[in-house]
Design a protein that fits this description.
- It is a single chain.
- With about 230 residues, this protein is of the alpha+beta class.
- It contains six helices and eleven strands.
- It folds into three domains: about 100 residues, no CATH class; about 55 residues; about 80 residues, Nucleotidyltransferase, domain 5, CATH 3.30.420.
- The chain binds zinc ion (ZN).
- Zinc ion (ZN) binds next to loops.
Length: about 230
Amino acid sequence: MQDKELYQNLLGLRAPWFVSQVDLRMEESKVTVWVEHLSPSTFPCPECGLECSVHDHRRRTWRHLDTCGLVTMIECDVPRINCDAHGVLQARVPWAEPKGRFTVIFEAVAISWLKVAPIGSVAERLGLSWDEAWGIMDRAVRRGLARRDEFPIRELAVDETSFQKRHEYVTVLVDRATGNVIDVLDDRKKSTLKDWLEAHKERLEAVRTITMDMWEPYVTAVMETIDAAET
Ligand SMILES: [Zn+2]
């Protein structure tokens, strides 16, 4: 079915993750996108990044940005891995923060609006309760504080993602070694990425690989910032 491919692209999913089913309920103005992972797969331990086998799964649901005016939910049986050092832990998923109930992109939009508009108006526009909107802002602030002394980045991935319909782009930075979303930048300009790379030089000292979309501003930003960068 083409709709699976459509949602796969909208969510920017890559192997081992794929859209297995799209469940459209017009009467509820809702679409549920089911995501699964290829099997067998290993996933990095969220604590140490070591590849671990799957222990079991837990069903989780996230709200994503509306698509075609429909409330869009993602459902997935998320694998829990068994790490020798850290025990049974839920694997990270690329579309959401560990305990988030919204996708990273949904939260990024909410946060960008919360910077310029009152919580109540943002909540109303996004179909959230005031508490949910506040929770998104609160987590963003705490993530910002937590980020300062996080581990060095080993495998940086720079991806551009566009919002439905509005054709606005954000830049999503992911550490592929752990699967953690490191940051979401407001646009896909060279200067924005370059500023970020400059500001995080210390954490990037041990970086082994940088993968990115072949978007010229990204390539030049990396070439101009990271000394040993080779294409
Ligand atoms: Zn571990």
